[in-house]
User: What shape does this take?
Amino acid sequence: MERPTPTEPAPTGPRQQRRRLAARRLSEEGLKLIARQGLAAAKVADITAAAGVGKGTFFTHWPTKDAFVSDLLDQVLTDLARRVRPLGLAPTDAETLVADVSAVHLRFFQLRPEAAALINQALALDTGGPAHQAATQRLGAHLDMVAAMIAPAGEQLGWPRKRARELALALVATAGGFFWLGGPLGLGADIPLELLDRLGRALGRGLAR
Amino acid sequence: MERPTPTEPAPTGPRQQRRRLAARRLSEEGLKLIARQGLAAAKVADITAAAGVGKGTFFTHWPTKDAFVSDLLDQVLTDLARRVRPLGLAPTDAETLVADVSAVHLRFFQLRPEAAALINQALALDTGGPAHQAATQRLGAHLDMVAAMIAPAGEQLGWPRKRARELALALVATAGGFFWLGGPLGLGADIPLELLDRLGRALGRGLAR
Amino acid sequence: MERPTPTEPAPTGPRQQRRRLAARRLSEEGLKLIARQGLAAAKVADITAAAGVGKGTFFTHWPTKDAFVSDLLDQVLTDLARRVRPLGLAPTDAETLVADVSAVHLRFFQLRPEAAALINQALALDTGGPAHQAATQRLGAHLDMVAAMIAPAGEQLGWPRKRARELALALVATAGGFFWLGGPLGLGADIPLELLDRLGRALGRGLAR
Amino acid sequence: MERPTPTEPAPTGPRQQRRRLAARRLSEEGLKLIARQGLAAAKVADITAAAGVGKGTFFTHWPTKDAFVSDLLDQVLTDLARRVRPLGLAPTDAETLVADVSAVHLRFFQLRPEAAALINQALALDTGGPAHQAATQRLGAHLDMVAAMIAPAGEQLGWPRKRARELALALVATAGGFFWLGGPLGLGADIPLELLDRLGRALGRGLAR
DNA sequence: CATGAATGAGTTTTCATTCAT
DNA sequence: TATGAATGAAAACTCATTCAT
Assistant: This one.
């Protein structure tokens, strides 16, 4: 209470460190399991067991499983955004920008196929529940960011500015879908970076009849 | 068992017709519900209620819910294949072929966003279970078909023939992912066919730097 | 559906009878267990086991445990009201009416001590939840009925008409509390009816200094 | 264990004072919460938070939650006894004695409705457990005391001496039940002391037909 | 001593599936 | 064959209690 607490256990004590470590491991293992087994099949008990903590510990970090997934989605998209955003700074021509944004997404999802899996699964969160809304909004926010970045480029390529979000969606969905569907099919995981770039070109030359 | 009395009205009697009608309605409503609420949230009870039949009836048509989903996936992909296959017959140049295959997929998923939803959800079927294997194989078969169709075109576009499945995957994932992610975000559903075609071109010109 | 259903399984078929029987047994056993062990300690699993049905069956009859308790309270108070109401019809003098209402309550709770237990426990239902509200309202309705019946008599005994509910509360609480607290103490259960009547008189003469 | 070093500042040092203060606050807040939300719904965490101490501190004062409730009940009944006992000293006529005992209980529970709540809830402690036994015994002891006090008066009022405990029970249950049931119904809390006395008389004249 | 993070046994509740009618 | 009532395995989540700091 009003005790002067001279020794100050502080919020950065070793206790808090352990705690944060547990949270990180839960996130990591949870993401892995969700990607491997699907959202519904990844039980909280499995996740905690994989992270080496008790079942109850999970719920001291997140109030519900859905909240956990929302949080995971946020982490993943934040991480993704960190790699995408720099592209908006150095000015280049329209086609390069679009190709680069696409490439960054592809590479990101190749390195972290669990991220692709999560994004595609998160939409199946309890429909109508707050977590589903949160997930939808978070994904929408990412698209907004990408859209803002590529809208001018899209316009030069003949795409209406008002539909920029759909162009962004196409870029993200291509990359995410590729590695999400590819995972269980054993496709994409071993595709070399060089080919990944050429995939865009091949797809591009094909689409642009 | 089926008591084959000679006076019995053939197996195509009105009984069978009713039965087949029920199956069709179950498939339709089930697909709708899975797309709207997700695989796990779409309860068998909901599906039968929507189809206007008793809960038990469901299990006279499919042995398990997973089998139902597998069947649904098969129906959807068979339907999709029916529209894709003709493109392989009339010979055109490489770029047009790729663009056309992509366009057919996009249009199909725009008209039937539930199909896109199903394909993305089906991979989340209880991993390790036979239904998950079946779903993976079925999707793989579709990719094989598309790959066989576009492999030569891909080669002309500079894409290694051995990696044709990945090119096919990119085409399918772009289309499916676009409408699967777009659904909850309210994107794509109202995009006019003309723009849909230009989406490919814009994306293409962008990717092909 | 639109099938003429000539054989009409009817809602009064043997199936429904079994079902209603199960509900009755669940109510009975549930009431017993709640009285014996308390609301929180009476697990749904115990109740279903005692009633000889599967755990899941419980939830086909009531959506939640709280709803079950609300329903039980309603049954009990309806039963009680059936015995109290007739007293309001035959006109008697004030003191006799009050004594009779009190006596009916006492006898009712002596015969069904579980009812007394339930009434006292029901107020501990998840506070703020709808079941708690329902229980409070239901009990209030019973008091309203008793109050309406004894208000004139109370007035003759010098009790303000506006406070009739409090007089009713005193009558009900005396009887309910007596057998609720008496139960675990081993008091009251074996008190003969004749003494029960004299209890009122003794208490009465004592209180009326 | 308690390291009895001679230089230690007596067991009544400021440390002990703080400790005792915490215990008192825990008791007060615990009683409030149990009365407001019910025994099961009043979590240890809520109680400690309300008392402004850490969760672990609770268990340095009482070994279990049940022990805490037992202790609370003991405190409450001891407090009540302190006000009831004096009535047994000054000799009065039978009716006055009964009325006074009743009045003291009523006033006590009006001032401390949480006490009424606690007494009615304590019986719902895990049946079979030692805490439930303790609570039952403690309540029985209170009844014994009241019974010893009013047995002669009861006899004069025509109540068999052997049943004195039941008469005591009736007095206590009336008062306790009135404010316990009245609480959630919004009854009794604002009833003026003067009316409270008349309640006994009205009830009494009614019961004593 | 005081603390609060960790724990897991125990509860309610869900829902695919079975099966008597 | 169609039905829907019954079932119980399984899952999320709660919370009293422990114990390292």
